[in-house]
Amino acid sequence: MQARISPFHDPETGTYSYVVSDPATRRAAIVDPVLDYDPRGARTSTAGVDAITRFVQAEGLQLDWLLETHAHADHLSAAALLKERHGGRVGIGAGVRSVQATFRELLDLGASLPADGSQFDHLFADGETFRIGDLEARVLATPGHTSDSITYVIGAAAFIGDTLFAPDYGTARCDFPGGDARELHASVRKLYALPAQTLLYQCHDYPPPGREARPAWTVREQSERNVMLNGATSVEAFAAARRARDATLAVPTLLLPAIQVNLRAGRLPPPAANGRSYLKIPINAL
Questions:
Q1: What are phi and psi for residue 46, nearest 5 degrees?
Q2: Distance (Å, rounded) from C-alpha 90 to C-alpha 67?
């Protein structure tokens, strides 16, 4: 039995979230859910999460997992809110500990952000397997964009986070703390070693004019057509191209708010004495 995969697209951030369900048992996982956030007013909202909730309820699904492919820098995670609504366990790659340590120091978060991964219900190791109902899922460590990046392989589908974008766009950037273009090249080689018809479900799509957003491409399509890293691209050529491209990129608009929420498994920072949560913005630090 193959997984049923239902994509949800957030046009504001270009993010794809996925409900992955087992038709036989109606058990499910949600991959990379988005909490809406307006940086101008520092306000959260739940339109995207509400659409997922309506789908889960309408389909009679029971949630086993909330799966993060990495600690995102371009959107806030809704994992905590969905766990509160539907249950399930929040999982992320074990490399999140090093990301927590880096940003705890940068943001001077101290004891409010333990760098041990304890905010999550489970930290996945490379090669680990787990189940969604009767479906078996396998974890591939795919670092390079970030040190905690992982891929979830479920049958003929792989949820790859930011490792690759659409073939006409390329790959993830590698200039974040813990990023490494040579590691990303090796990670993409792991993906290209999957069966050719495996669908690689990406976390984002930024389509050019004339092409609609699309959640997935096959291994064959990516390995033949990816403009930055196809099956013939050498590690030296990719590292040079990635460095040149990254030097032109701005800091993501939501990096600072997103990372402070996402490293807490989708929870806002602990409230101050007045009951409000606050985000820290370091001046001239990035």
A1: -130, 25
A2: 6
Burial-class residue 142 by CB neighbours within 10 Å (0-12, 13-18, 19+).
buried
Instruction: Round to whole Å and give the CA distance between 187 and 88.
Output: 28
* Structural domains of the chain, with CATH: 4-250 (3.60.15.10)
The letter for the amino acid at 166 is: A
Give Cβ neighbours of residue 60 (< 8 Å, ≥ 6 apart).
26
- Provide the sign of the torsion angle of the four alpha carbons 190, 195, 200, 206, taken in this order: positive
Q: Phi, psi at residue 136, to the nearest 5°?
A: -95, 135
List, for residues 129-178, the tens digit of each pLDDT value.
Answer: 999 999 999 999 999 999 999 999 999 999 999 999 999 999 999 999 99
Q: How many CB atoms lie within 10 A of CB 60?
A: 9
Q: What is the pLDDT of residues 82-91, one digit of tens each?
A: 999 999 999 9
Instruction: Report the distance separating Cα 59 and Cα 259, nearest Å.
Output: 32
pLDDT in tens, 185-236: 999 999 999 999 999 999 999 999 999 999 999 999 999 999 999 999 999 9
Distance, CA of 29 to CA of 27 (rounded, Å):
7
Helix, strand, or coil here: 101? Answer: helix
Question: Residue 286 has what pLDDT?
Answer: 83
Q: Which of 263, 261, 259, 258 is nearest to 115 (CA)?
A: 263
List the structure tokens of 114: 């333990």
